[in-house]
Structure formats: C-alpha cells, structure tokens
Design a protein that fits this description.
- This protein is an alpha/beta fold.
- Among the domains are: 173 residues, Toll/interleukin-1 receptor homology (TIR) domain (Rossmann fold, 3-Layer(aba) Sandwich), CATH 3.40.50; 157 residues, Sandwich (Jelly Rolls).
- Helix content is 37%, strand content 18%.
- It contains 26 helices and 32 strands.
- Strands 8-9-11-13-14-15-16-17-18-19-20-21 form a twelve-stranded mixed β-sheet, sandwiched between helices. The chain has a six-stranded mixed β-sheet with strand order 22-23-30-29-31-27. A five-stranded parallel β-sheet has the order 2-1-3-4-5, with helices on both faces.
- Strand 3, helix 6 and strand 4 form a beta-alpha-beta unit.
- The chain is elongated and about 185 Å long.
- GO terms for molecular function: DNA binding; DNA-binding transcription factor activity; protein dimerization activity.
- Keywords: DNA-binding, NAD, Nucleus, Plant defense, Repeat, Transcription, Transcription regulation.
- This is TIR domain-containing protein.
C-alpha cells in the first residue's frame, strides 16, 4: 500500500513536470512568434515607406513630364502662330500704293488717263484696271487688288453708279476703309457730291437705271433680300461724305489732278506706327544684341532702346465689344496713334471689326495677352502695367499696394458681395489711364484717383452724383451705365477733353449735366433713363456733338429749342420717348443731320422743314421709315386735307421747295387737284387714281381748266420767252425751228424705239407738213386720228404680241403774227382704269425708256384710252394721230412681223 502510494505521487510529479515544461515551451514559442510578427510588421512598414517615397518620385516625374509636354505644346502653338503670321504677312504684302476706281466710258480716255500718268510720273505704284479684266472672270482679282492697295482714289462721274462692277469696287473699298483703315480719296468729276451722297440728279438717274436693269435680271424680291441696294447706297453715302476734290468743268482739270497727286503723296508719306517682326518677347534677341553691342570691348555707358508695339495689343484687351471709333478716341487721348495701330492689328488678324463697327478678339489671344502681362511679375501684381484677374485686383486694392506701374485696371464684383474698398488704394497709381469697374463700392476721398484717367467705365456706379472733388480734366470717355446717379454733378465741373458721355439705364437720373462745361463732347448716350423729364438748354453749347441718343426716355418732354442750333449733329435718336409730341420747324437748322429716328413717340405731324432739309438721309418718324427722298411725295400728301392744309398753304410754308417734282395721288379730292398747277409750279408729272368714271370726268375737267389758266397767265407775262426750248430729240422731236410758221409737226414717242418710229422722225425732220408714214399697209402699227387736240381709241388685242410703243403725232398751226410756244402738257387718260397721267413739256424730254414703260404698262388690251395735248394760247391743233406699235412676246429687239386683228 505504502509502495503504491509513493508510485502515484511520483507519477503525479512527473506529469506536473511535463506540464510545466510544456507550458514553458508554449510561452517561449509564443514569445518568439510575437517577435517574428513584430519584425514582420516593422519590415512591412518600412516597405510601405519605401513604396510611398517611390510613388512620390513617380508622381513628381509624371508632373514634370506633363509640364514639359505643356511647355512643348505651348512652344509649338507659338511656332505655329509665328508661321501662320509669317504666311499671312507674305500674302498680305501691299502690292499697290493707289487703286483707281472709275467709270471707263466717262473718264478713261480723259481725266483718268491724265491722272494715271501724273501718278506714275510721281513714282507711285498704281493699279488701273483695263477692259480685258472687266470682261473676264477676274472680279475676285480686282477686289483683291483693292485690299492690297494703301489708298483708293474713286472718280465719281455721272454714269459711275450705272455700272454694277463700279459699285462692287466701291463696296469693297468702303469695307477696307472700315476694317483695315484704307485711305479713300474721292474725286467728283462733273457731278456734285450731294448728288452722290443722296443719289439724286443725273447721278441718281444712272443709279436708278442700274437698279431697274438688275431688278429685271435678278428679280426685285431677290435683290431686296440680298441687301444689294442698301449696301450700295451706304457705300455711296459714306464715300461722298469723305472730303474730296470737285471737278465741275474741264478748265480746272489740271489743277484738280495736281491736287489729287499732292494729296496722295502726303497720305503715303504719313508716319505710321512701326511694328517689329516679333512683337512679343525679347529673349531670342538678347544674345544677338549683346554681340552687336560688343560689351567686352567697351567700358562706356551705353543707351539701349527697345522697340515694340507700345502696348496697343494689350490695350485692345480692355475694349473687346466696344465701338471702334470710341476706342480710337480713348487711345488717342493716351498719346497713341490708335487708328493706325488698330488697322495693323486687324491686318494681322489679332483683332476684328464686325459689321456694327465693334472690336472683337479671339479668347485665346485675349488670354495670351493677359498672361504675357502677368508673366512679367507673377508674384507682385502691383508691378504689372495692367490688372485683369479678379484675385490680383482685389489683393492690390485691399492691401492698398498699388504703384505707378499700373496703367489699366478692371474689376467686376457681384452686387451681393457687399465688399467696400477704399479710394486710398489708388493713391500711388499715378499713371492709371484705364479704369473699368462693375458693382464696386468705393469709400473715401476721390482725389486719390489718377489725374491721367482717359477712360472711366463704372457700371452700377453707387453714388447719386459725381463727388465734388472728382476733377478729371483729361477724361475722354465717361460711362456710368446702370448707375444710381440722379444728376451728374452737384457742382459745376469742367471736363474739356470729354468726348463720350454714356449714362444709359440710369433709372434715377432726373437732370442732364451743364453741357457748357463739356465743350468737346461728341457723343451723348442716355438710353432708357425713365426718370429724365427735361434736357438742359445748355445742350445748345455742344458745338462738336455728332450723336445724341435719348431712346426710351419715357418721361422726357419736348426738347429745348437750343438743340436745333447744333449744326454739327449727324444722328438724333428719340425713339420710345412717349411724351415728345412735337418736332420744331427749326430742325432744318441742323445742317449736318443725316439720320433722324423718332418712331414710337407722340409726334403725329412731320415738320415741314424736314422736306426742305438738304442733309437728312434716313428718317424713321410717324410710320415712315427709309430714305427721305423716297418718302417726300407720301409725306406731303399726308399733310393735305380739305380742312387742314391745302396745296396753297403748303406752298407758302415750303417757300423754296425744290425736291418735289412728281406726285402719285391716290383718290385725291377735287379741291387739291384744282390748286395743283397754280400752287406747285415745279411739279413736272402727276399720276391720279380716281374711284369712278364720274370722278375721272370731274378731275379731268379740273386739271384742264387749271392748265388753261396757267398757260394764259404765262402767255400774258412779259417775262415769258417766245422761243421754243431745245428738247432731247430721243424723247421729243420738234420739226419746225423757224420763228414764223403757218404749220408745224410734233412727234412724241412713248416707249422703245423701232423702225416705224425712226421713219416717223425722219419724215418730221424733213418738214413734211402732212407727215405721212411710208407703206400704209405696214402691219405692225395701228393708227387712230382725230381733229383737234385729243384722240380716243380702244387698245386692240394682237395675238402673240405686246404693245411696245405709242407714237403721238400732232399737226398744229399758229398765226404768222406770233411765235409758237409749242407743247405745254400731255395727258394720257385711261377711262377703263380711271387714271390720269399728266406730264409737263420739260418732263417729256427727261423721261427715259423705263419711265415710258410705266406709261405703256398701264394700258392693256380692251382699255379705252384718250390722249390730250395742251398747247400755248392762240395755237391751233389741226390733227392728232396715235400709232400703236407692237412686238412679239419675249422678243427684246429686232423686226416686227405681227398682223392686225
């Protein structure tokens, strides 16, 4: 038992020992495992650090590669731009110094030939087109020659506007004048500049002849839709407005040619802005410059001048979307030759000028220009010449760190920003010339603003008036659109250099400034100022103003009388001024006024002085819109009513009215017609539409009675000449030129010439008293005759043929004791259509084929027509004969071979 008990104890002890060893072994194993794991984690962390470092290196390498790629791409873009610019400059070399535009048949062998020789003798390279070019398909080459010329000399002659090619040349010349600043020298050869400007007189007739011809060829609708006519009219008006040389007779041709040559030489010698081949960057030239200076061999102090574009490109970034002429004014005020500079930029495609004369620039070019300025001082924006970027501008203004290096600054803030800046921020900007703000609130004394400011554009100007200490004598343009201004200045401030004042959309503006303090103002724009009720009488002091725009000033009442004294004003816009109900007769005092826009006003009566005006071209008033000369007849008849104005009262008001020579009268009253010949002696033709046969009969009697009284008065007047005037033989042929005759023959041709009309003329010229046509059986005419001064007939239908010409032969006689006064008037009365056409003798000589076609076109087969001739008193019309001449349908010329039906 005792032995067994000891064995068990040993066994237990052995087991405990084994367990203890096993536990020790497990603990040691766990400890080693923890050590291995810790070492593994440390190795893993170390590996992650290494990977992170390697990733950072890779990222930096990628960034560097990307930046290198961007740099290479930028360099490639610059290189492409330089190559493109080089190609453009090579293709844009000005090959000619002068381009001659003229009408060949008028001046080629005379004036132009001598002018061309004198220009060549002066060493001037001249482009003068020849007939082979005009006959060929080289109009594109001709227009390219215009673009490659420095000056265009346009010789306006009577028939210049009759050529479509001449007008295409002129249109291109004016386009180059507007876009690239090409110089234009107009020469008015035997034509008045006003006739060219307004397309009147002989020049206007040639232009109308072209329009009639083109409208037939292309169709009136297509011609109108393509806007050809309007472009031609604008080109003629703009060219004729340029100061030129007038040659009204052959005796002063040599002096005129001398003046033209001297003028061209002066223009070619004009100093222009010099632009280097590479206007951006100087790094590529540094080494060449150092080598040229040879600094190692010289210890002297040297002066190095750097030529560039004078900041004109960077300046242009400020004026994107602005009117080109306004920009020129502003930049000229800064001492730059802006017109030449902008022309060069346009030539190099750096800026554009659209059809509204607005400057444009591609976004990439704009950003490039801004980056160039930014790159000169990337970390110190106050040292840059111009500030555009929002953060940079705010940084400089908020820290008041501006310097004299800053010449231009632009900042646009939203109104909800609520941030106020102090005017002291501008204290050190002594050279600041261009300041453009929008939604900016400034507090402090405005004396800190630079006195060199030329342009201040401040949209949403927060004050009700300019501060009392706002002294800006050098300011050229002040633009305060959408402002809170009530009056411009509380205290009189003289701004003698101000040319542009724009307060548009200032809804609180109630008073205009004292214009006597703005002696050089040229442009006044007050669009949409609803609180403005009156304009200061001092507006009459603006002796240099060119444009006044009061559009949509709905509270503005009638204008001060002093405004009508503005002799320099060219454009007056009053559209939308609902309370303006009257325009004064003094309007004619505006000698330079060419455009009057007064639609959507309370004006109901057009002033009589508008018709008398010699300058007004475009009018929009009382429902009339267009060129004044085209609307004169309609305007005058709108004035007339039995209870308002008679022709007598109108003539008294018109005085020296000379523009009214022809009237179309729709359903006029008998009262008006009765006074027509008495009160409008200058009226050459009349077209009356009657509502019925009864009214036609009444009107015919009234007209004939009035003509009889007029002719009787003229015959009794001692000042009346007794000799017959010399009338154009193509329209009116008077056969007997003897003073004392017992019989005379007269032939009037209405329509196109033909063999029959030629035979009639020949017979008349041979003084055949009976004036019989050869070949009485000739089938292409029909004859109707009657004793006395009138003949009635019905237009026959001739199958396959159209009426071409009406020949009126009159055989008349007069006592031997008096001298014949000849024909006075011709009436064509269409009883079927109830129309009367009246022509004075002088008008018959001036009518052309197109005018006669209007007469003939009113006569159709089946119409009952009466032709009446009115001669001077004491003359007897023995017989009146009408010959109708037909032509085959669709045939323009050639022999006639129809048969009577």
């Amino acid at each position: 038992m005792i032995q067994n008990s000891g064995s068990e104890e040993d066994a237990h002890a052995l087991m405990d020992e084994r367990k203890r060893k096993r536990m020790i072994s497990n603990f040691e194993s766990a400890r080693r495992s923890r050590i291995r794991k810790k070492k593994y984690m440390n190795d893993l962390l170390s590996l992650m650090d290494n990977l992170k470092h390697e990733n950072q290196q890779i990222f930096e390498s990628i960034q560097s590669t990307t930046q290198n790629y961007l740099n290479i791409e930028a360099e490639n873009s610059v290189l492409k731009a330089q190559i493109s610019d080089l190609s453009f400059r090579i293709s844009d070399i000005r090959m000619f110094e002068v381009f001659l535009s003229f009408r060949g048949e008028d001046t080629r062998a005379s004036f132009v030939s001598h002018l061309y020789a004198n220009l060549q003798n002066a060493g001037i390279v001249v482009f003068k087109d020849d007939e082979s070019l005009r006959r060929g398909d080289h109009i594109d080459s001709l227009l390219e020659a215009i673009r490659q010329s420095q000056i265009s000399v346009v010789v306006f002659s009577r028939n210049y506007a009759e050529s479509q090619w001449c007008l295409k040349e002129l249109e291109k010349i004016i386009e180059c004048h507007r876009t690239i600043g090409q110089m234009v020298v107009p020469v008015f050869y035997d034509v008045d500049p006003s006739e060219v400007r307004h397309q009147t007189g002989e020049f206007g007739k040639s232009f109308q002849s072209l329009l009639n011809r083109v409208s037939i060829e292309e169709g009136e609708k297509e011609l109108r839709e393509r806007g050809k006519v309007q472009c031609w009219r604008e080109a003629l008006r703009e060219a004729a407005s340029i100061s030129g040389i007038v040659v009204l007779n052959s005796r002063n041709e040599s002096e005129a040619i001398k003046s033209v040559v001297e003028n061209v030489i002066r223009l070619l010698d004009k100093t222009e802005l010099f632009v280097v081949d590479n206007p951006v960057g100087v790094e590529s030239r540094v080494l060449d410059t150092i080598q040229l200076l040879d600094l190692e061999k010289s210890n002297d102090v040297l002066l190095l001048g750097m030529w560039g574009m004078g900041g004109i490109v960077v300046h242009a970034c400020f004026f994107i979307g602005m009117d080109r002429n306004d920009v020129i004014h502003i930049l000229n005020g800064s001492g730059l030759c802006a017109e030449n500079g902008i022309r060069v930029l346009v030539e190099r495609s750096l800026v554009t000028v659209d059809h509204k004369n607005k400057l444009g620039m591609h976004d990439l070019l704009r950003d490039m220009g801004r980056e160039i300025i930014r790159g000169k001082s990337p970390k110190e924006p106050e040292e840059r010449s111009r500030l555009w970027f929002h953060e940079d501008v705010l940084d400089v203004l908020s820290q008041q760190s501006g310097t004299k290096a800053i010449e231009g600054l632009a900042l646009n803030l939203p109104r909800t920003d609520g941030q106020c800046l102090n005017t002291k921020a501008f204290k050190n900007m002594k050279k600041l010339r261009l300041l453009q703000l929008a939604g900016v609130d400034l507090i402090g004394d405005y004396k800190y603003l630079s006195k060199n400011l030329r342009w201040l554009c401040w949209h949403e100007f927060p004050l009700t008036a300019l501060p009392a200490n706002f002294y800006q004598g050098s300011l050229v343009s002040l633009e305060l659109e959408n402002s809170y201004v009530k009056r411009v200045c509380k205290k009189a401030q003289v701004m003698e250099n101000l040319k542009i004042l724009n307060l548009s959309h200032s809804h609180y503006l109630t008073h205009t400034p004292d214009f006597s303090n703005l002696p050089n103002l040229e442009k006044l724009v007050l669009i949409d100022c609803p609180s403005l009720s009156e304009v200061s009488y001092t507006i009459g002091h603006l002796t240099k103003v060119l444009l006044i725009n009061f559009q949509d000033c709905v509270s503005l009442c009638n204008l001060p009388r002093s405004i009508y004294k503005l002799k320099s004003l060219k454009t007056l816009i009053l559209s939308g001024c609902l309370k303006i109900d009257k325009l004064e007769e003094d309007l004619e005092q505006m000698e330079s006024l060419t455009t009057l826009v007064a639609d959507k006003t309370a004006v109901t009566t057009i002033p009589f002085s508008i018709v008398r005006s010699k300058s007004i071209g475009y009018v929009s008033l009382c429902g009339y819109e267009g060129f004044l000369r085209d609307m004169v007849p309609s305007i005058i008849w709108s004035w007339m009513s039995p209870t308002n104005n008679s022709l007598s009262s109108l003539v008294q008001k018109f005085g020296g009215l000379s523009s009214l020579v022809s009237l179309d009268v729709p359903n006029s009253s008998s009262h008006h017609l009765a006074s027509l010949s008495k009160d409008l002696p200058k009226l050459e033709s009349l077209w009356v539409e009657c509502g019925s046969e009864l009214q036609l009969s009444q009107h015919t009697k009234i007209i004939l009675d009035a003509l009889y009284v007029t002719n009787l008065r003229e015959s009794e007047s001692p000042a009346t000449t007794s000799q017959m005037p010399n009338i154009n033989a193509l329209a009116l042929i008077e056969c007997s030129s003897q003073v004392h005759v017992s019989g005379s023959n007269l032939l009037i041709q209405m329509g196109m010439s033909s063999e029959v009309s030629s035979n009639l003329k020949e017979s008349i010229l041979q003084n055949n008293q009976d004036c019989l046509l050869p070949h009485d059986c000739y089938p292409d005419w029909l004859a109707f005759n009657s004793k006395g001064s009138s003949v009635s007939f019905e237009i026959p239908q001739v199958n396959g043929y159209n009426l071409k010409t009406i020949m009126c032969h009159v055989h008349y006689s007069s006592p031997d004791s008096i001298t014949s006064d000849g024909l006075k008037n011709l009436l064509v009365i269409n009883h079927t259509k109830a129309t009367i056409q009246l022509y004075k003798r002088n008008a018959l000589a001036l009518l052309e084929d197109e005018d006669w076609q209007r007469v003939v076109s009113n006569i159709e087969p089946g119409n009952k027509v009466e032709v009446v001739v009115v001669f001077g008193n004491r003359l007897t019309v023995n017989k009146t004969t009408i010959y109708l001449i037909y032509k085959p349908m669709g045939e323009k010329s050639g022999a006639l071979s129809c048969t009577k039906q």
